[in-house]
Predict the structure.
Amino acid sequence: MRKISRRNFLVASGAVAITAALSACGGSSSTASSTAASSAAASSAAAGPAAQGKVLNIWCWNDEFQSRFNDYYPEVSAIASDKSTTTLKDGTTVKWTINANENNNYQNKLDEALLSQDSAADDDKIDIFLIEADYALKYVDSDYVLDVKKDIGLTDADLAGQYQYTKDIVTVDGSQRGTTWQATPGLFAYRRSIAKDVLGTDDPTEVQTYLSDWDKFNDVAAQASAKGYKMLSGFDDAYRTFSNNVAAPWVTGTTVTVDENITFTHSHPHTDHTAEHRNIHRMCICIIIV
């Protein structure tokens, strides 16, 4: 394996991200400081490439990406006892900064750090940070981030195994500016005794025939509701199905469009809308920056 320089490492880490394991994530969105952060980045970009430090800084909101990196990246040599740093075989130190998502904490601290990129020491500058699909555009549509193919060197072959939607989410004007290290799959789990009560069978193959399209799903949901059951634990369970199939962007110029798909998923009568039953599943994305 070739020696890993700071820049070449970014290429290699992208490949690791492609093959990493699955997991679920959570967080919230904020745009208050992104404009100022983007402006600061623009001036930095205009000044030309910065000197490279000897520390690779990666920001996350939990240890999921960190644990996959430490477990599967073949160039890992040693891991600090407190897991705050990872040492690679060529001597490079990977420093992990983890700030929890609660109350928008992760984004707030990330934005503050990005605003200080120009003045930060070389070994303190952020190199890679993780984001979620919900607020991806806030960061990828800026002067901070690099094109993972043009600037970093990933190829179409490197990214061929990724679902197209994971690439579209972080693409601006044809430039892909992030790469996902995981995407959470969807499934429908049911209690067999309830299926037996509602459908007369609990056999997975037979149950599947009753739920093979949304019209059938709604028919079964009506039957379940008549017996006091809810098909979904919260609108979030089906939200992605509807939100990813809207006909127009949320905002066009000064016009906000609320698609019928969005209003449907929030008002579906066969969904448990109590707060304690709302489940949120999101995609996590790895961003590489200047």
Summary: The mean pLDDT is 76. The two ends are 25 Å apart (CA to CA). Residues 5 and 166 are 27 Å apart (CA to CA). Residues 6-19 form the longest helix (14 residues).
